[in-house]
Amino acid sequence: RDFNERCAQCSEVNWGLTDGGRFYCRSCHNVTEKTREVVNTDFITNSRVQTISKGSRKQEKNDAGCEWYICEGFQLVLKKQAEALEALGVCPQMKDEILCNFWRCYLQKSKQAYCKRPAGETVKALSECESSTDVDSDPERPSLLHLLSLSESEGDLQTDCSFASSVSKVSDSTSVYSGSVDGSLYLMKNQKEKLTMTMPMTLSFCYMALLWLREPITLSELLRFVVEGHVPYLNVFQHFPEKMKLCGLDLRIFCVESWPVYEEVFNKMHELAAFLDLPRFPDITDSCFLHPDMLCMKYLMEANLPDELHNWTCRVVKKIGIGEVDFLTLMPGNKSTRKVKYDVLAAAVIVVVLKLLFLLDDHYEWLLSEFAEERNKNNTEGGPYFEFKKWYEVVKQSLDVEQKKLDEERAKYLWRCEKPLFYSVKNKSKVLKRRQMVVNLQSQFGKLSGSVRRAEKPNPSSFQLSWSEENTDGSCFHRHSLKGVLQEKCGLLTAMNPDYWLCTVKLCNEKLCGHLAHYREVEFPQSYHFVLGLFSFLLRIQPSYIHDEVCMIEHKLFNKKLYKKLKYNTVLRK
Amino acid sequence: SSHEHKLNFRQSKEACLSYIQDALLQKQWKRAAEFLTCYVESLEKDYSREQIGPSEMIWRIGTEILWHHSQSSMKEFNCFMEQMKTLGVKRYLKVCLEHVFHLLCNGQIDEAYQNLSLAESWRFGEQTAIQDKEMKLIEAYRGLLDYYSWSKQKNILLEHSEDGFSDLAVEQEMHSYFRKAAVSLKEIIKIPGVWDIFVKCYVDLLEFYGDHNEARQVLNEYAYNSKFPANPNAHVYLYQFLKRQGESKKSLISALKILHDIVPSHELMIDFNTMLQKSKKRKKHLLGLEVIFAALDYAGWKENAKAWSCLARQVKQIVTSEKHLDWIKQEWNSRKDWWPAFHFSRFLAKRNWQENESLSYEKALVAGILLGKDCKYFKYVSHQGCKAQLKRFRMLKKFVNRHNPVYLRISG
Fold it and tell me: From B45's CA, which of A525, B36, B106, B129 has a CA 20 to 30 Å away?
């Protein structure tokens, strides 16, 4: 598609690729001298590329595979991920326009494609690396042997140096270090210069595109879909075409053996946005899903809390200005504003509201609950008052069940796939034998597992906990009233609770120690810990991150009082 | 508990193992199988740094599950074992051996023998030398099965000879098994270890063919060579052999003496005591008293009427002769604080009387002498016995009453 020149013979623009990598005109079969200089992304994405097959060439030649570059691999991954997201309901624009363009921009900025660079450079660079045994030439660049002996996915068959010593170059541009052309170069690049592409970064790309389109999927949801298998990530390389042989160092790049981490994906996304020089993202207004008002509504429902609490979350959001467009919208490269984690922020708002109304000091909330219980017993008209105790019991029970299921899922997680991975052709047979044995054993013991067959992955759903109002056992608290904890003062509804305790009096410097505050379970009330735990489960994120946001919100909310106190303290000291 | 939301391969498999462990401990074989199915992909990673790698884990866990699972068959089990043999060459012989044990437990002697023979012929470079110990064990067990076959042939032969037949073929087979068994068994018992079954079988073979010298040597080595771990059974076997050979009381006693030192509660202590009492030497009588007292220190002997009768007899004899009361005093000294509650409580008096009259008789005698006629045990039992108008209890009462002063001298 990028090659838009008109054919010299027939003036048509209808190009294909020969086996030799040259462009030929499909209309008149005129073969040009132009070889593939630039990575032609069409090679993968455009399945209509045809090749002239020279009759004498047999199929076995193809067994050796084709030349492919690492970024082509990542492109495939992104494509698969985008397709999956489309299947989940994301608009097709994401795949066809947004993600595509982000990716192309990235390739250009990182000088991997869409730029002037002779094809020979990669090869030259590679042979330079190999010939330089003098490590001092670039002390920061790890030697190939060193890279080979380290293994992210530890203990893969034959990662030791015996493999390294058995390397031999098959052709000028491919070596047995990797199936791809530039696998080894990729890993050896100085990673501080540019953002080298990694598997977690593919999710950063996806999230960035989703954010640009303001799709109703939060980062925590995206990562959950990844873990649940609805978005390809683990073993996505099994969808690479046959010709793209994956081996050696490619594995280190494409094989994932850990779940993606929220923080990592989040931070990389912001780095990426800045790297690509993206402009201000589309505005996040109060009608967007990602706006705290909307997300709070969703999380309140999922946490089985009364709808009435929404008024309060909106009030808090408004008071501290976190619902403002400028606060919420991403401005890449702006280092002064704190990066917004929409999901964590909304959860933290709810926690703060709960603290405002119920105090959550392990005493007051139970007291209020008792009053509500009394009232509910004696007075059944006008709907029930919300009882914290009942809510706690119901939610805890469900949470425990779900947590137990999740724990078992973690233990039962399958990391490998059909496609066997080998570092070199040498240990291919060993790997295949092992794979066969694994399959046999899985079959043998699978039969003995009884009727518990490994269930098909559950349908993707936005809600992990759901509560039905049709249940007559009163286990749904959405319609419950907050009257029991509110009082009227001067025409305004305020909380009966007059107190509030701050999670922390002083915030840490996030840049120095990575957190705004340090959360230790034993230092806080059990109720607070429970509430954090609930949202921690829903968002699949450590409680400490929610705690950080809570601290941030509290400091904004009680800013004036804190400021006064500080001033007072300094005055006293004088 | 804070739940990590990160997960990597290693953590996931560690968690999987702990679920398997729980399931195994609770005998939930289906659940264990379910998790093992998820664990097996660990085989595709090499954990050479770990102490116990996935292949060993899978072998051990899989064996347990297949052995106990209701839907698992021997065929499946064997198939699994064959797979496990290919997994780790460093463990090959160990897996073979354990497979053989399972086959034997299942009564599949022939299959076990085949497997042993196959394993015996295995050679794998330097591994053969490294797995030397396992190889010796395999040869030994093969020898054991040869012994078993020899034994069968021997019985057939004996049957036929009774009927008047002489069967040359059977005899020859028998001898051939003997040769094979003897060679292997002899080898293994050279190595310091606990080889009870091999020793027994080997001695049996030697005795049958009349090589008593060799048998004696083997048993002596087994019992007295300090390189071998202390093993009470070695002394038992030696004693039994000496008895069979009609050896002198002296040698029998010396064999049992060591057994008494190692295992004072051994069942042969009654024989030992009897033998010692019959001896003409005074020292032996003292030893006999020590032996029987020591045996009765153990809970397993509490209701052993024979043991009590041995003690009673000796006590009675000493008291009657009024010689060596200091022996009783010495033995009683370390026991007087706890034997009363241990053996001579009123509760036990009642129970013994109800369940075993002879036992109560013997015990009452001992109690009466050691604790005096006013002790609970003696009073109750003698009273019951006299009530039941049993002559011997009346005699007992008289005896104890007559010798009551002895008690005072003992307890002082």
Answer: B129
Distance CA A511, CA A514 (A): 6
**What are the residue ranges spanned by the domains of chain A?**
1-37, 67-113+193-278, 292-405+473-558
State how far the alpha carbon of A496 is from the alpha carbons of A144, A319, A356, A384, B148, in Å: 66, 19, 9, 18, 88
- The backbone region for A302, taken as left when phi is positive above 0, alpha when psi lies in -120 to 50, beta otherwise, is alpha
Segment holding A17, helix H or strand E:
strand A15-17
A337: nearest Cα among A270, A393, A433, A264: A270
Q: In which region does residue A362 sit, left (phi positive, over 0), alpha (psi from -120 to 50) or beta (all else)?
A: left
Distance CA B258, CA B237 (A): 13
Using a CB-CB cut-off of 8 Å, the residues of chain A touching B18 are 411
Q: What are A206-223's pLDDT values in tens digits? A: 999 999 999 999 999 999
Range scoring the smallest mean pLDDT among A1-10, A303-312, B73-82, B86-95? A1-10
Least confident of A95-109, A144-158, A231-245, A547-561: A144-158
**Chain position carrying tokens 């004072």:** B264
CB A538 within 8 A of CB A299: yes
Residues of B in contact with A437 (CB under 8 A): 43, 83, 86-87
Q: Give the contacts of B165 (CB within 8 A, at least 6 positions apart).
A: none
C-alpha distance from B34 to closest chain A C-alpha (Å): 5
**pLDDT of B105:** 93
Distances (CA, A) of A386 to A350, A369, A474, B6: 16, 8, 11, 35
Q: Is the pLDDT of residue A236 over 50?
A: yes
Distance of alpha carbon A473 from alpha carbon B78, whole angstroms: 54
- Residue pointed to by tokens 């078992």: A408
B135: closest CA among B172, B93, B170? B93
Cα distance between residue B16 and residue B57, in whole Å:
12
C-beta of residue B310 within 8 angstroms of C-beta of residue B328:
no
Does B3 contact A407 at a Cβ distance shorter than 8 Å? Answer: yes
Nearest CA to CA, how far is A384 from chain B (Å)? 33
> Which residues of chain A have a CB within 8 Å of the CB of B37?
441-442, 445-446, 449, 454
Phi, psi (degrees; rounded to nearest 5) at B264: -60, -20
Q: Which amino acid is at B359?
A: L
Tokens 């491919």, residue located: A174
Spatial CA neighbour of B358 closest among B292, B288, B307: B307
Measured on CA atoms in the order A31, A36, A38, A40, is the torsion positive or negative? Answer: positive
Cβ distance A251 to A424 under 8 Å? Answer: no
Within 10 A of B395 (CB to CB), how many other CB atoms are there?
11
Across the interface, of A257, A411, A450, the residue whose CB is closest to B16 is A411
CATH assignment, B126-245: 1.25.40
- Exposure string over A468-501, b if 16+ CB within 10 A, otherwise e: eeeeeeebbbbebbbbbbbeeeeeeeebebeebe
Supply the pTM of this predicted model.
0.77
Helical (H) or strand (E) element with A428 = helix A428-447
The residues spanned by each domain of chain B are: 126-245
A378, burial (CB in 10 Å: exposed 0-12, middle 13-18, buried 19+): exposed
DSSP assignment string, B28-86: -HHHHHHHHHHHGGGGGB--TTSSS-HHHHHHHHHHHHHHH-TT--HHHHHHHHHHHHH
Distance CA A183, CA A68 (A): 10
Among the partner residues A258, A262, A440, nearest to B8 by beta-carbon distance: A258
